[in-house]
Amino acid sequence: GNYGYQPQPMGFPGGFGVPPVQNQPNMNGAIWMPIPPSIPNCPPGLEYLTQIDQILIQQQLELLEIVTGFETSNKYELKNSLGQRVYFAAEDTDCLTRNFCGPARPFTLRVIDNLGREVMALHRPLRCSSCCCPCCLQELEVQAPPGTTVGYVVQNWHAFLPKFTIQDEKRTDILKITGPCIVCRCCEDVNFEVKSVDETSAVGRISKKWTGFVQEVFTDTDNFGISFPMDLDVKMKAVMIGACFLIVSLSF
């Protein structure tokens, strides 16, 4: 499955074939972020994240879902602050799971770079999200590249606040995320604050962007923003992307 995605042309060693096209639109008019050089000890495909401190995630509008109400697999564009596409993400679930489990469904989200490589896989198993079941709360595993775990996003029990912990591959707590008491707010952004483990200093933010009354009411497409320090470990940037998608699935 290419999920309807057209990768950027890739060259071949020795100067043969088509060289990589930098900052060019694809058939859908999207502008790609220039391909960064390889970086030692950086998971392949995550080099893009070393150059950015913000990501905008835009869910693609599905006409079939609007007309019929039938839940289709979600697809997203991940862009930098200049509007250039960094990644494309597509949900990999079956039809029955999407339409019978709804927002509680397990899923695998495959993240593809501009060369068409699958650079991340986000796995969410079937879990409970109710505060009445604190022993089986939500969790998401981030692999980069697929098959290599770089971290986890774990939901923490709280009576009225959405709270999460970002962990590294060894299950060590790295960052905390806290959302507002009332998530569904009209006519304004909804912010989830990313903080240090002791929650004394701000590190970043995950925000749901208000997109206007018509789109908010009549579709389930959403725009989200992620901000993080430029020098944050690239693996933790990847896990923050995973945290955003877990928050999307739980809260919106």
From TrEMBL:
GO terms for cellular component: plasma membrane. InterPro entries: Scramblase. One of its GO terms (molecular function) is phospholipid scramblase activity. It comes from the Eukaryota. It holds the Pfam family Scramblase. It is found in: Membrane. It is a single-pass type II membrane protein. Its main location: membrane. Its cofactor is Ca(2+). Keywords: Calcium, Lipoprotein, Membrane, Palmitate, Phosphoprotein, Transmembrane, Transmembrane helix. The keyword Cell cycle does not apply. May mediate accelerated ATP-independent bidirectional transbilayer migration of phospholipids upon binding calcium ions that results in a loss of phospholipid asymmetry in the plasma membrane. Belongs to the phospholipid scramblase family. This is Phospholipid scramblase. It comes from Erithacus rubecula.
